[in-house]
Model the fold of this input.
Amino acid sequence: MDSHQRTKAALSRQQPDRVPLFSCTEAQNQVYEILGEQKGMTPLSFVQEGAVGWLLKHATPVVNGLGIFDREFEKFMFKKVAADLAMGYDCTWVMYSAIFKLQDNYHATDIYGRLYDLVADGDGNMDTPMYRQGLLTTPQAWDDWQHPDPEQFHKRLERTFSQLRRQYGERIFMMGSVCWGIWENATQTMGLPGFAVALRRDPSFVRRMVGVYERLYLAAVHAAADAGLPGFVYSDDMGHKTGPQTSPRVMEEFFGPSLERIASEAHQRGLKIIIHSCGNVNALLDLFADCGFDGIHSLEPTAGMDLAEVKRRVGDRMCVFGNLDIAHVLSQGTRQEVEAAVKAALRAAARDGGFIMAMTNSHYAVKVENTRWMVEYTRRHGTYPLSLD
Done:
């Protein structure tokens, strides 16, 4: 089987020749290390100090108008896929993240209405902007914001996804995606306090807001399909360490119909679609399965997600992705610990197919060497029929 056949079989809850490997790596330090291009990193001091810092502070409209920031994010998507191919992954998550506008040399906003800090990774290089707060704290502020146009959004994503498919599409199963999901957009642009007030006082506004974000997300799904990609990741962090960020009732009533339509339209366009959520989402597993998603990621073990239990509960309806720990195993673990984690995941969820090996998330601290071990041991122990001692 090739990467496409192997991934499609697993996503259809069938048994391929071996367990596929999925990459969610987005950390620049790892991508550049894999490609041997460490000099490609940009020190945060470069954009905050000296002539460049002055320019960004005093001429941000010009910089934004030229689209420099957007092009850098788009260029990185290509490097990310090239690195995933070099590592030997079967499928990859390609998230479109050119959604930021600089405010000055220390801050950025996004197209949805969030404020971010420009931050450095552990080596002092510029990292993905860090969310600070929502800017649309009231329904009036939300209404006054110039929201993205779905048609223009579609064009931007289709162009980039099409270029990625032409360059890499034959060699790896690419799953398009976009920052961010409906729950994150609704809660983070307003801030949780503002969202909670609106949910209680003006539920019709919340439904209208959710509808706007649904249309944007559907534009992204159709852009991936029009570009010829075979899959999509609906990315929306709905959990924290001990449970969902809101009650399952609220999630089902206000967000469930949108999730169901997104999954349905993806399928109508011939896409496989999975759902990604960090945190403890045990209470939402049935909702995700009922909405029709083909798979689920990230199933964080540090948030109480048990891979075997997830497989038992929804493995007959969704492909299970995961769930190698990035807090220790892939950032500090020994070769032996990585092998043990791979074998434990295979035992928990891979015996009957419908399983794809993946780390739980992308993080600066993950080591490329440990990731190589994950790939190596999945190939060694994940060939069907499984034989795990």
About this structure: The chain has one domain: 3-31+67-97+142-380. The mean pLDDT is 96. The longest strand covers residues 91-96.
